[in-house]
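Handout, page 2. Input:
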Amino acid sequence: MRNLNLLLVEDSEDDADLMLLELRRGGYRADYVRVDNAEDMLAALQQRKWDLVISDYVMPQFSGPAAMKLLQDSAYDIPIIIVSGHIGEDIAVSAMKSGANDYVMKDRLARLVPSVERELREAEVRRGRKAADEALRESEMRLKLALEAGRLGTWQRNLKTGAMTWSQITQEIYGLKPGEFSGAFKEFESLVHLEDRERVLDAITRAITGRGPYQVEFRIIRPNGALAWLESRGQIFIGADGQPERFTGVTVDVTARKRIEFNQEFLVEFSDRMRPLGNPSEVLRVAVNSVGEFLRVSRCLCAEVMTESSEIIVFRNYRDGVDELDGIYSFSDIKLPLMNSVLAGEAVVVDDTMTDPSTAPAYEAFFAPRQIRAFIIVPYIEEGILVWTMAVTAGPERRAWAQDEVELLRLVTERTWMAQKNARLYEAAQLARDEAEAASRAKDQFLAVLSHELRTPLTPVLMSTYTLQADPNLPAKMRSAVEMIQRNIQLEARLIDDLLDLSRITHNKVELQLADIDVHDVVRNAVDVCRSDIDGKQQQLVLELDARHHSVRGDAARLQQVFWNLLKNAAKFTPPGGRLSLQSYNYKGTVRIDVTDSGMGIDKHLLPKIFAPFEQGGGASFSAKFGGLGLGLAISKATIDAHGGRLTAQSEGKNAGAVFTVELPTIPRANGQPVTIHEKQHAA
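Output:
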């Protein structure tokens, strides 16, 4: 069992136990502390050294994003994995971009151990790089004391004669055999890389003329064509005549250090270039081009492995003067010993396909026609399955690959696969957003057409009421009825406008005509509008307006629409002879109005979505029986929300009736006494 110092940010003890069990199954003995708030997490970070942080995404007192920010602000270099049961694809993408090293769904905890192993390995690599940097700095400080132990070559130039003397180590550093150096300064000059030559000569001149120390890094081209980085330091010695007499110094091969520095710089730049990419094809293009140019190879390619069909699909191919390799290849195209290593998750490094035992049998048939003389293949294993590879090839000459090149390609392979997955998630999320926007536009167009069709027949009716009102002989009772008709037609027209503005309302962009109003008056007006519906079904209506504080700041017409809609629904879904009630009471600075019925009730599984637009709760047969568009409750809730209140629904289920509660904040104002009215309506 491997020990793991684990900081677990999780509020659920059961979920924590499941993760710890999965880690034990994967061979980890977790020494852990569980926290669920920022204060405890910060204290835990300060008290101990942690290998890993695993955090839930949503918690009552804390969250995954907050944990990531706290970890970043505290400057601890600890990988963090998000484990959640509620995270969506778009949130997952956002979490990765915000600093999460990986994410795992709680219903897929089998991914936890591979993710932990990968992040621990990455953390170890980072610590290794940091240690290497510190070691390099220390070695530079002790450079003068480490001539023999560090294989530093010594050299000397006679400034009177121009002759140079190199130690044996110096000649080896320059790729020469002992005694092969002629001692001529021109020979040294010819070995310096052409692009660095002027800079080196200028540094020498400055040192000789006393204008600065001699310390320079430069490239050389060895006689065998290999490139190397050297660091050279020297000092001028003055002769008896007061003139510079000799130039003495040391040279060290810093190729390994420079390669590490270049690799680190490349990885930082590579990650920066990959992070904002949201297109899978662009991810692959940037990856192969960056690696191909940096390693100076003939090809760099990414491939997805289809183990079920024993095929490799090459998606993207960087090439430098050689043929494309994009396409589908069978495992049989490459000899089995080599593919067995790849399938086992082992990197395959071949310096010469012509002579290597694993590739020589296939050289003439496969490698030679494709100008592949040397290559590296790095596989990526996910959940025990080979899913992805990156490869580089060189040709037509053999190439001796360095270990740091293999390690670099391994890191790039992992990062490219993760970037590819993230890009696919982002692309899927973008597609979903586009589809949602298209659906929203279609809905808005539908509402516009619908509102027009509903408004058209109201216009002549409204005009007729104006004509009737203009008749001086109209009886008072009839005039009152006409006024009620006119008032309700105008209200209906406004409700139709609300249908058209549904999207605006649900986004809190509705313009309310606010005033100080008595919500009891609003309720009574709504009752007047619904009276005919209640009378027609012989239903009993009870008004218990007991709230002592019932003044609110609101839009009377829109609030009347809410109560009208709730009461209409109550009457519609309650059988003849049933009971309806409206009760008001005060609660913690609010007035609550309960609209209660004894009707068909609401299934509990439908309650969470009862206020969604176009939701009617019972499917097509329900809509056919009761009619309506399923917009009333959505508009009502949006209206109450816009007033700073709440609209909720409760029901014990089928045939158990329902209670809709409107809660609005009250304002200081003198109100009347409670009013209780019992009305029982009978059919004529």
